[in-house]
Specification:
Chain A: Belongs to the peptidase M16 family. Chain A: This is Peptidase M16. The complex is a heterodimer. Chain A is α+β, with helices and mostly antiparallel strands. Chain A has 15 helices and 11 strands. In chain A, the strands form 2 sheets. Chain A has a 6-stranded mixed beta sheet with strand order 1-2-6-3-5-4, with helices on both faces. In chain A, strands 7-11-8-10-9 form a 5-stranded mixed beta sheet, sandwiched between helices. The radius of gyration of chain A is 23 Å and the shape is globular. Chain B is built from 21 helices and 25 strands. In chain B, the strands form 3 sheets. Chain B has a 13-stranded antiparallel beta sheet with strand order 18-17-16-15-14-13-25-24-23-22-21-20-19, with helices on one face. In chain B, β1 and β2 form a beta hairpin. Classes of the chains: A alpha+beta, B alpha+beta.
Chain lengths: 442, 700
């Protein structure tokens, strides 16, 4: 998670009117098969980042087959009709490049950065796996083992590692956000090869993908290569499955205790958020910074430094396409009970709901947001991802240049308003993480 | 050819759209005729285009009268500026004050004559900026519009630090806790072991901070260091971002022209030799399930050396990445490890070569064998053209990517000046890399790798790995701080576990005094993260009752009670009865002097020789209860007192400062180390009441 420091003091010498965000220029087009292509030219360094965003995440999965989207993130490095097993990474690396990928509830994103004379190779590689990735039993069996180890390492064996899955499963009763991208190992074990192939044919199609190229390119040459390698990828024949589920507003608090391999209790609260594109997302992001962003933030100062009831406390707005959750997360200090920490968190939330925030604090938030956005587009890899997400999530690539002005639309009183509107104590999820040793004997 | 035809078809399609129906039939026929071979030949990977010209931007520079050299790299892509100051001094041997330089940066940030630490932190954060100090660096960055303010803060930290005593005390405490937990960390032990065997403890690169040397450090030492080394005549400043030379010069002159020069001592740094033959250095860490292996020797290599690039390529082929020989052999082929890598350092004075991996205990000797094999093999048989090409491509690629960050160009300019590199060192970097031949790399392998003169350092479970390591050279044992381990032998061959216990009872006051103790109330205190913990344990042995309460800020945080043949644990608002197994284990600690009860409880005792416990010889006695739970106690050979115990449930407890109460000696300082607590917990016994009157309330 990003960490910001926000602080008091200092006179109002800061000039807030000058908007620091620099304009990102780009060209875009769509192939006949539906592949959307965004290009950004920046010839200052002879490198390129090429990425493909597939608009498929865990929310597109069959409830009986969770974990498929993330599993594909692994499977797509297995090779293609023309790339041997395991060759993908070696080819990119020995061409002087670096690469990676990730899967969220909403998207799967693949990217590589190479010297600019290897752009054609990067496009060839991505087109290979879009056209005919190798989906066979050996690859499925190998990656199933790898994913099992990943799950153990990142969730099961990690103190507090299950917070997200446990929270999501309670925050959503209908929507597929109720499971997380890592999904279920049982589902992966039960799935047949045909089901994997079907998932590939359904979602890994050009009309569900956004190809982004950023860096030292010639627009015409890049466009020509894109057409050369991607035009022959057939358009998907079916409709792309997207959940059309309205998560009902919760009217009752969901409260549970999770016993984990931990020593120190933790409190988690989760509040449902509006859709990612809703204008209140900006105010909620600012609210989270106000509460826990930095040493002098409200909760850090009060709960960690003054009262010493918490070792750490964090507010995380997890914004998702269909409406994410705002997570409050506090780890108790030695000898402090989870309930004692929770009631202090609530006291502070109520204070913000009743009093809002001061002029100075609001100005501070704006400074922090500005700093954050300026550094967001400092690398080609960052620009590529922000362009792709602008197009896919906000429907308009130009969003990349509008984010700061969207934040600027938030008014001081909006912080108080959204605190009341979304942090509703009656409709939230509250989890207490307690040491297994505290679990009553059955 | 086929790619060409595909290009033809693409331009063709464009025209098709423009001309609409006019030539539609003609076009169609052409398209159809081409479909058979219109596609790209996907069986061939595209060749790279001509290598792009790597434009390394220029840094502008100027020097102040006080000697401060400044390099400016203007980059207007983003409206931000970074100021980075580094000091170029020789390595310092800190000796009695080892650890001093680790404190300098944080001490400088702990407040100035006009700003408290809180005020300083707040001013920086309000700008959304950052400001950090180290022993040889000072770094600040902010948005363009705040550049004057952040430089003002940077200069305040540079000129006016107040070095508060309280902050040093806090930092020392932190450092000592960190040191304690690092003694259990196999990677930290391995790093201390290798630097200690390669450089020796009397070398700036081989010495280690200890509790003692940290304790020796004073505010005066920090001030002396600051006064001696924070001088403009050994400093370089890089200014990178949305700022031109004129602006930078004005700012720097305004804030740094008054910085006073000073005489900075230079130091000689000894250059240790590689060992005459391979030697094994081992730390026996019985808890290890993995062995941390490092195969290493000193090497003279620096960026200014003519073979610098040759050794970069050599290392990439041997173990620089996930396609290199070590990785392919030890992970992909043998499955010994998650990763195996090598490195050839670069240092103005003396560097090291090392190759290593963390492997599961059982394959330790096999892994060492394979690592040595790969080193020998590359020396004897060299590399292939294909490996050379892949290494060049990878290294060129990462050079190119590094240029995306404008600070790289400033670093290039500083390195060129600082290390007296040729003016076109970076301009010709890629060309020189590209000119390297297989023969060049093979010669570098012979020159810089010494497969017969290496230290093979291993941190692992001695009883599993030691025999297998003997084949690689003479084995020397070290402790977890990298000091040669003392050889301990059991002088008294007739010693038994029972006699050790009997000696212990004698040492604490004798059978008679000990047997008079029936009840006790022991209160002690400890501090955790600045908070006081009070502990009270109450023992009533004739009635089989026991209670242990831990209190924090007046609240009971945890409570264990044994009475009526049951044990109950309360904590975090939850209460639960222990299982039989937990109860049996808890019983081992419920007695005031547990040793007096071992026999009647049916415990078995094993004497496992004499061990070195933090410098003291001690008998190791393993106590096993009927359910199989074990406690290992260590009794000092010289004093007879128990100095340490270990168990799976409570971790490690060190007993110190024995004091006499009613004729029986009790330890009054207990240090508990456990994987479940982040740092060692030191508790001090404040009161021991022997045969006190106890009430039923004591066992609630």
């Amino acid at each position: 998670m990003r960490k910001f420091s926000l602080l008091m003091l200092l006179s109002g010498a800061l000039c807030l009117s000058a908007i620091a965000q620099n304009n990102i220029e780009y060209k875009e087009f769509t192939l006949d098969n539906g592949l959307h292509v965004i290009m950004h030219q920046d010839n200052t360094t002879p490198i390129i980042t090429a990425s493909v965003l597939y608009h498929v995440g865990s929310k597109n999965e069959n409830p009986e087959r969770t974990g498929f989207a993330h599993f594909f993130e692994h499977l797509l490095f297995e090779g293609s009709e023309n790339l041997g097993r395991g060759e993908y990474m070696n080819i990119i690396q020995s061409a002087g490049g670096t690469l990676n990928a990730f899967t969220s509830n909403d998207i799967t994103y693949y990217y590589q950065t190479l010297p600019s004379n290897q752009l054609e190779l990067a496009l060839y590689m991505e087109s290979e796996r879009m056209l005919h990735a190798k989906i066979d039993q050996v690859g499925v069996d190998t990656q199933r083992e790898v994913v099992k180890e990943e799950k153990r390492q990142r969730y099961d064996n990690q103190p507090y590692g299950t917070i997200l899955p446990e929270t999501m499963s309670r925050a959503y009763s209908k929507h597929p956000y109720q499971w997380t991208p890592i999904g279920s190992l049982e589902h992966l074990n039960a799935a047949s090869l045909d089901e994997f192939i079907e998932f590939y044919n359904d979602f890994y199609v050009p009309n569900n993908a956004t190809l982004t190229i950023a860096g030292d390119i010639d627009y015409d040459q890049a466009e020509e290569w894109v057409k050369q390698y991607f035009s022959e990828v057939p358009q998907g024949t079916g409709e792309i499955r997207r959940p059309n589920v309205e998560e009902p507003k919760k009217t009752e608090e969901v409260r549970d205790i999770i016993y984990d391999n931990i020593q120190i209790p933790a409190v988690i609260q989760a509040y449902n958020l509006p859709k990612k594109t809703h204008e209140d997302s900006y105010a909620m992001s600012m609210l989270s910074t106000y509460l826990t962003g930095g040493k002098s933030s409200l909760m850090n100062k009060e709960l960690v430094e003054k009262q010493q009831k918490a070792l750490a406390v964090q507010a995380i707005p997890l914004d998702l396409e269909d409406g994410g959750i705002f997570i409050m997360y506090g780890v108790a200090n030695m000898g402090i009970e989870a309930s004692a920490l929770e009631s202090e968190i609530d006291v502070i939330l109520r204070k913000v709901q009743e009093e809002g925030i001061s002029d100075r604090d609001f100005q501070k938030l704006q400074n922090i947001i500005e700093n954050r956005l300026v550094s967001k587009n400092s690398t080609m890899a960052g620009v590529a991802q922000n362009l792709a997400e602008s197009k896919v999530f906000y429907g308009d690539t130009e969003y990349i240049n509008q984010e700061l002005s969207n934040y600027r639309k938030v008014k001081q009183e909006d912080i108080k308003r959204v605190a009341n509107e979304y942090l509703t104590l009656e409709g939230r999820v509250v989890l207490h993480y307690l040491p297994k040793s505290a679990q009553p004997a059955e | 050819m086929i790619i060409d035809s595909a290009r033809f078809q693409l331009t063709f399609e464009k025209k098709y759209k423009q001309m609409k129906n006019i030539f539609i039939y003609l076009m169609l026929s052409l398209v159809i005729s081409q479909t058979g071979f219109a596609q790209v030949d996907r069986s061939k990977r595209p060749e790279p285009g001509p290598a792009p010209e790597i434009k390394i931007g220029d840094a502008e520079s100027f020097t102040l009268a006080n000697g401060l050299k400044v390099f400016v790299v203007e980059n207007n892509k983003l409206p931000r500026v970074a100021f980075s100051l580094i000091l170029d001094r020789d390595p310092i041997f800190e000796g009695e004050k080892a650890g001093l330089t680790d404190f300098v940066g944080q001490m400088m940030m702990a407040g100035t004559s006009s700003r408290s630490k809180d005020e300083l932190d707040e001013e920086v954060d309000f700008l959304g900026a950052s400001l950090n100090a180290g022993a040889t660096s000072l770094f600040a960055s902010s948005l363009k519009k705040n550049q004057d303010k952040i430089v003002e803060l940077m200069a305040d930290v540079l000129y006016n630090p107040i070095f508060p005593e309280s902050e040093l005390e806090r930092l020392k405490k932190q450092a000592i806790s960190g040191l304690a937990s690092s003694k259990d960390n196999p990677d930290a032990i391995s790093s201390r072991l290798t630097s200690s065997v390669v450089f020796g403890k009397e070398h700036p690169y081989g010495e280690e901070a200890t509790e003692e040397t940290i304790g020796n450090i004073t505010v005066e030492d920090v001030k002396d260091y600051y006064t001696t080394y924070f001088r403009p005549n050994i400093a370089y400043m890089a200014i990178v971002g949305d700022i031109n030379k004129g602006e930078a010069e004005k700012l720097v002159t305004q804030y740094f022209a008054e910085w006073e020069k000073g005489e900075v001592p230079s130091k000689d740094v000894a250059k240790p030799q590689a060992p005459e033959k391979n030697k094994v250095a081992m730390v026996d860490r019985s808890a290890s399930v993995q062995s941390v292996i490092s195969v290493t020797h000193p090497v003279k290599m620096h960026i200014s050396d003519e073979d610098y690039l040759d050794t970069r390529v050599l290392n990439y082929v041997l173990g620089g990445g996930s396609s290199s020989r070590l990785f392919m052999n030890l992970r992909e082929d043998k499955g010994y490890t998650y990763g195996a890598y090598s490195s050839i350092g670069s240092d103005k004075h003396i560097a090291t070569f090392s190759a290593g991996a963390s492997v599961r205990s059982e394959v330790t000797d096999s892994a060492v064998y394979e690592i040595i094999y790969e080193i020998r093999n590359i020396v004897e048989n060299g590399i292939t053209q294909e490996e050379l090409d892949a290494a060049k491509a990878n290294l060129s690629g990462s050079f190119g990517r590094s240029l995306e960050s404008p600070s790289t160009i400033a670093n290039f300019a500083i390195n060129t000046e600082r290390y007296d590199l040729s003016k076109d060192f970076y301009a010709t970097y890629l060309q020189r890399l590209n000119d390297l031949t297989v023969e060049d790399i093979n010669q570098a392998a012979k020159k810089y790798l010494k497969p017969e003169n290496m230290y093979i350092t291993v941190v692992g479970n001695g009883s599993v790995i030691q025999d297998g390591l003997a084949q690689f050279g003479e084995i020397n044992q070290y402790d977890n701080m990298g000091n040669p381990a003392r050889k301990v032998v059991m002088a008294d061959a007739d010693m038994t576990a029972e006699r050790v216990l009997a000696n212990y009872i004698d040492a604490i006051g004798g059978e008679e005094n000990v047997s008079n103790i029936e009840r006790a109330k022991i209160s002690s205190t400890a501090e955790v993260q600045g908070m006081k913990l009070d502990m009270l344990s109450v023992h009533d042995e004739p009635n089989g009752m026991f209670s242990q309460k831990i209190m924090m800020m007046g609240n009971v945080a945890s409570n264990i009670v044994i009475k009526d043949g049951k044990a109950t644990m309360t904590g975090m608002g939850q209460s639960q009865e222990m299982t039989d197994e937990q109860f049996e284990e808890a019983k081992m600690g419920m007695y005031i002097i547990p040793e007096t009860r071992y026999e009647e409880m049916g415990y078995t005792l094993d004497l496992d020789g004499v061990k070195d416990v933090d410098g003291q010889d001690a008998y190791k006695v393993i106590v096993t209860n009927p359910t199989g739970a074990q406690v290992t106690n260590y009794y000092s050979v010289s004093s007879g007192l128990k100095i340490k115990s270990e168990s799976a449930s409570s971790g490690e407890v060190v007993y110190e400062n024995y004091k006499e109460y009613e004729g029986v000696k009790f330890p009054t300082q207990l240090t508990v180390k456990s994987p479940m607590i982040p740092m060692p917990l030191k508790s001090v016994v404040e009161n021991v009441e022997i045969n006190a009157d106890l009430a039923a309330a004591d066992f609630n």
